[in-house]
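re: that chain from earlier
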Amino acid sequence: MILRPCLVSFLVLGCFCTAMAEPSPDSPYHFSKTDPVQVGISAERLEQLNHSVQGFVDRGEIAGAVTLIARRGQIAHCKAYGWRDVETKSPMQTDCIFRMFSMTKPVTCAALMILVEEGKVLLTDPVAKYLPEFAEMKVLIEEIDGEITTVPAERPITLQQLAMHTSGIGYGIPSELSPTLAKQAAEADFFNPNNPLEKAIKSIASFPLLHQPGSTWEYGASIDVLARVIEVVAEQPYGDFLKERLFGPLQMVDTGFMTPEADWDRVASLYTNNGGLKRNLDYEDYYKIGIHHGGGSGLLSTAMDYARFAQMLAHGGTLDGVRILSPQSVQRMATNLIREEENNTPWFNDKAYGFGLGVRVVKDPAYLDTLASVGTWGWNGFATTEFFIDPEEELVSVFLTQYIPTNAKPWWQIYTNMVYQSIQGR
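^ sequence. v structure.
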């Protein structure tokens, strides 16, 4: 889904006058802090946002959060609320590090577009051109009395279908479709941190697809497969590619698949609700050990780092004078590419949203639960992280907390509405 898209009080460090018109895509403007009034955001109404997010903390719904709002390429708000760790009473800070989970996916799709621009891949390329294990795929039909029925895939999976989640690859195999394969997929444990990405993707390819390629939107491990394609084409580990081509140029100094030990005390603890706010230990320590550099999850980042990535996209592929992508590539990412495909995921409101490359795109406000403009794009993560980019309002926002499951309560939707109510003009 998409949207174009830290917490103790933030001190405004400077005021930078900005022109009303958006700067030219190649201008060396700096993504820096400004007085919110300078970019058409009400300081008074930001207090309503602060009150709302602090309320989540005060009611014991989340431990803490970090929020960031940028408009017209300038940071108008960045604030930390609550606790990084409730048990030790360590306060949240704006530079705290978060498990981004599926907010890794838009990063992977941006990495794909780098290779497209270099002429190394086409979006219409079959995956099997780079990963032969996907050459003869089957599609699962049913299992009756232990007899599993599959049919050949009618067409090859393409790179664009991976990025759109229309490849037929899900997250494992639903037990109602095949209890035998569901058990085997669970035992395969594709994303065990000890699995290299190559091994994980070969294991995924050994199972049948859930749908014919290009027929159905099914959220799953497609973008992890895409990361393996990038590894093969770039001839280097996926994490190294991201560091060299994205994180380094964008000065995303705290983003990666593992956090250095010196920064472990900046990582926000992960919580769930089990008769009250309780630590969730399922994914607690993976920031220490890292994972296999997956394309669909695994990154750790900060609000500022991820905002730099989002602002690069919002500004047509460039940030602080460094060009990562062309405006045309960003536009392809942010365009609804869903046509006749069916939606097989009940929680994705396909009346309100379309889908581009790794991101949702707002298409019809009649079905939308926020005040976001048509064309707003972004995505969220499993531990209740969210970002969005609104081209119409020249707006970028990031909301980060650490709570599983995501969407347990409409925190990010309420936050998004608080962002929009703070806008006082152009």
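The first helix runs from residue 43 to 58.
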